[in-house]
Amino acid sequence: MTALIKKYQPKDLQRLPAATENKKFLVDLTYTLNRNIPDGQGGILYPKGYSFNPLDYVNLSSILVVIDGSDRRQVEWFKDSPYADDFRCRLLLSGGDFYDLIMDLGRPAFYLSAEIADRLKLAAVPSVVVQQGNKMLVQEILVPDKETQKESTGEDK
Question: What superkingdom heads the lineage (predicted)?
Fold first, then answer.
């Protein structure tokens, strides 16, 4: 049973390539209803076509960090980052064995689904996602090869 748990990967796991440059962009989470939402009393609470941005109503204090757990450079980058010790960080994996990574890092990790990757417009890893106003700020971070010895803070120069 433990072997099955160790090797589990969901069918909708979204694999992403390694970032080739540091990049930042904003994502608008505004959603438009594709059907009527009933009010439970025979009426319509929200009509089809109604648009709303959930970030107009909630503040997300968590930080999403997405890495490929099978890429040792990205795992080491995460360990050396300020996010590794930040209780607000939610670690998402676009690859690798979550069980081994959980044991190695001593923290929970979850697999990245295609739905989340699509909604947040994630295209490369590692990525750090935080709320900025009523949008989500996505930072793709270049983790260089050790030979190049470039800094990989995630900040644009």
Answer: Bacteria
